[in-house]
Design brief:
The protein has 22 helices and 12 strands. Strand 5 and strand 6 form a beta hairpin. The strands form 3 sheets. The chain has an 8-stranded mixed β-sheet with strand order 1-10-9-2-3-6-5-4. It has a two-stranded antiparallel sheet with strand order 7-8. It is α+β, with helices and mostly antiparallel strands and 452 residues long. It is elongated and about 85 Å long. The two termini are 53 Å apart. The protein has 3 domains: 170 residues, 2-Layer Sandwich (Beta Polymerase, domain 2), CATH 3.30.460; 78 residues, Hydrophobic Seed Protein, CATH 1.10.110; 152 residues, cca-adding enzyme, domain 2. The structure holds adenosine-5'-triphosphate and magnesium ion. The site of magnesium ion has 5 residues, from loops.
Length: 452
């Protein structure tokens, strides 16, 4: 990279010629910028904050870059923690808001004092650690995309562009800085970031940035599952989950994140899993629009639903009973998936509960529905059932029963479950006498099913 860094002056866009105003930057970020500046340091807003403001969008967060070393930043702020192994960063905390401050870094093999390499690379070129401080210009060149390497300087309120980011922003282009293949090898997560920004910002990928994506997905195998989990949240919880999903599939990246799901999606004559998934992704996007909370567990439950069913059917065909098959399939699917994308227990447990409640939602006689409705995961499980309803007739009838049931008052509910029990007794089920069968509150019972 170093040889590619020209030492030309940046394009400087003075304050009157751009639309970034301090009023649009979070008060905390402005505070941090000024504190650094007043202490004699260079202090700039950088990355997504500058990019989004220039695009007239509301930034998700504000990242700051400075020539102050992390220890110097630490001394300036009482509310500051140094974090990170790969990149040493300062986090300045204001209540729940965190402003991230990074020291300008170079992407060079030699550290500035000539004391040897500060960049640790794997044999395949992947950067493992690159804590080599550098100038603002070097900092610009080691960033991923040109549109992410623009600086808003608090000293004069100008925007600085070392890499042609402004022109790309105006042309609506996402372009990797430097040689794309090399940059993807250095950090394969940049492939996911390219897709994420394309989906979120509605920009096009520059052809040279786009071309290698189709064939480099395998590089994601080198990325630790925990990092891919963080990335996966950003991919699917940024408000553009559907477009992101379609692009990930288009560039053959999705299968490297969710191999079992990809396998199911590729099976011919099967359109079901995609519909359920698309509905789950649409739901996530919609909930974000409505400012409702979203739980990654629900998304994982949808992403892995088809692999779960497939695994269950295999076990059932071998004579394993329904309950056992669900448990075993959930174990296998979760274990296999965690090898690619980590699935922390705080999400994998509720995901499993959503799955486990699906057959329980079929038990609609006696006190069971009343009890089930108070289960902490009931709402998520019911929502999941309604997702399934689009692609599964039996689930649709059941979802209808529950929807009506939830609208009833206590007396009506009691009556509905009595009717369900009566209908069951009338029809009888000699083979599975002890298991309840779903009966609708309006007495038109959905057909019994033991297939989730
Ligand atoms: P957003 O926060 O809206 O998702 P962002 O561009 O700010 O987008 P961050 O993950 O917050 O993304 O990163 C901040 C900046 O750090 C980026 O804009 C980019 O300049 C740089 N950066 C982040 N990840 C990488 C990477 N993998 N390789 C090179 N530079 C990166
Ligand atoms: Mg950011």
């Amino acid at each position: 990279m170093e040889s590619q860094i020209p030492t030309s002056l940046p394009i400087l866009i003075p304050r009157p010629e751009h639309n970034i105003s301090r009023a649009n930057i979070s008060a905390n970020a402005v505070k941090v910028l000024y504190r650094l500046h007043d202490a004699g340091h260079r202090a700039c807003l950088v990355g997504g904050g500058v990019r989004d403001l220039l695009l007239g969008r509301e930034p998700k967060d504000f990242d700051i870059a400075t020539d102050a070393r992390p220890e110097q930043v630490h001394k300036l702020f009482r509310n500051c923690r140094l974090i990170g192994r790969r990149f040493r960063l300062a986090h300045v905390q204001f209540g729940r808001d965190i402003v991230e401050v990074a020291t300008f870094r170079a992407c060079s093999e030699e550290s500035e004092d000539g004391s040897g390499s500060g960049v640790e690379r794997a044999a395949n070129g992947r950067i493992l650690s690159d804590n080599v401080y550098g100038s603002i210009e070097e900092d610009a060149w080691r960033r991923d995309f040109t549109i992410n390497a623009l600086y808003y300087d608090i000293a004069n309120f100008a925007v600085l562009d070392y890499v042609g980011g402004i022109a790309d922003l105006e042309a609506g282009l996402i372009r990797l800085i430097g040689d794309p293949v090399q940059r993807y090898h250095e950090d394969p997560v940049r492939m996911l970031r390219a897709v994420r920004f394309a989906a979120k910002l509605g920009l096009r990928l520059d052809p040279a940035t786009e071309a290698p994506l189709h064939r480099l997905g395998h590089l994601l195998e080198q990325i630790p599952p925990a990092r891919l989990f963080e990335e996966m949240l950003k991919l699917f919880m940024g408000g553009c989950a559907i477009q992101t999903f379609e692009l990930l599939r288009h560039y053959r990246l999705f299968g490297w994140l969710f191999p079992a799901t990809e396998h199911c999606l590729n099976r011919q004559q099967q359109h079901y899993p995609k519909t359920l998934l698309i509905r789950a992704l649409a739901n996530t996007d919609q909930r974000l629009v409505e400012d409702k909370p979203i739980n990654p567990a629900f998304l994982f439950a949808a992403l892995l639903w088809e692999p779960l069913r497939e695994q269950m059917h295999r076990l059932q065909a071998d004579g394993v009973d329904d309950h056992e098959a669900l448990q075993e399939a959930a174990d296998t699917v979760t274990r296999e998936q965690s090898r690619r994308v980590a699935l922390p227990r705080r999400y994998s447990l509720p995901m499993r509960e959503i799955w486990e409640l699906q057959p329980r939602l079929m038990q609609i006689t006696g006190k069971r529905p009343l009890r089930l409705a108070t289960h902490p995961r009931f709402r998520a499980a019911y929502d999941f059932l309604t997702l399934r309803a689009d692609t599964d007739e039996q689930a649709a009838e059941l979802a209808g029963w529950w929807t009506r049931f939830l609208q009833m008052d206590d007396a009506e509910r009691l009556q509905a479950t009595r009717l369900a029990a009566k209908a069951q007794a009338k029809k009888g089920n000699p083979r599975r006498r002890r298991k309840s069968r779903p009966v609708s509150p309006d007495q038109s019972a959905p057909p019994p099913t033991h297939d989730v």
